[in-house]
Design goal:
Blueprint: H1 2-7, H2 15-18, H3 24-40, E1 45-51, H4 55-61, E2 67-72, E3 76-78, E4 83-87, E5 94-104, H5 115-119, E6 122-133, H6 143-148, E7 153-158, E8 162-163, H7 169-175, E9 180-185, E10 188-194, H8 202-214, E11 227-229, E12 237-238, E13 244-249, E14 257-262
Parallel strand pairs: 1-11, 3-7, 4-14
Antiparallel strand pairs: 1-2, 5-6, 5-11, 5-12, 6-7, 6-8, 9-10, 9-13, 13-14
Amino acid sequence: MAAAYAAGQTLATPPSAQDPTFDLLTAYRVEAELTRLRREHGALSVGRKVGFANRALWRKFKLDTVLWARMYDDTVHYAAGNTASLGVERMISPKIEPEIVFRLKHPPVGDLTDPAVVLGAVEWLALGFEIVDCVFQDWKFQPPDFVAAYGFHAGLVVGEPRTIEPRMIPALAERLAVSPVRLLKNGQVSALGSSANVLENPALCLGELSSGLLRQPEAEPLAAGELIATGAMTDNQFIAAGESWSATVDGLDLPELTLRLTT
C-alpha cells in the first residue's frame, strides 16, 4: 500500500477482500510497521487521526471503539493567518473533512466519559482540515483496510489555536456538543454539520481514543504534545486543484479556516 500511494496507483482489491483473516489486530501491526519505516526515513510522528467516530458505523462494522492512525511532521501543516495552500496533484482520490484538533499537555486521565475531565488534558484546540485519500478503488474498504492504509491520512491543516484555560472548560465542554459547522467550496456551502457528529462531542472522541488505546497492549499510549484530529464534523467532500475551501464553526471562538488547493 505504501508503494501504491507513492506511485499514485489505485488498488483494486483491499487486504480484507484478499484474506478473510486480515483483522484489526493485524492491521494495527501493519500500521506500526509503516510508522517504523517512516521513522527510519526521518519522519516524526506528531499525533493521531481518528476515524469511525460515529456509533452508527460501530454498529454497522461491529466495532467497539474508534479507529486511529498516526500523523507525521511532513503531513501536518499550520495555516498562517488562518489561510493555507496544499498541493493535491499526486493524490489519488482526495477528500476534505473539517475537524476539531486538540494538542495534549498530557494524556487524559480520570473519567474519560466526562468531556470536562478530558479537556483538562488539552493545551489548545483549533479548527482543522484533514485531507483523506483512499488507495482502494471506488473508496470500497473495511475497517482493517482503513487502519493499514495510514487511516487514509494525506494531510492535516491546522488553524489558529485557542488555548484552553481551566476556567473555560465547563462552558467549552457544553459548546463542543452543539456547535454548528459550515463547509464551503469556492464560497458556496457544500456541507453542513455539527461538532456533535463526532461521538456527540470531540472531547468524548479524545476520551474514547485514550480508552481504546489502553485496551491495545501493542499500541503506544498517548503522549504530551500529540495532536489529535478528532474526526469529520460534516460529510467529507471530494476535492481538486484550483478549488478554495473554507470552514466555520460557531460558538467556539475559532476563526474561519481557508485552504487553497494547488497542483
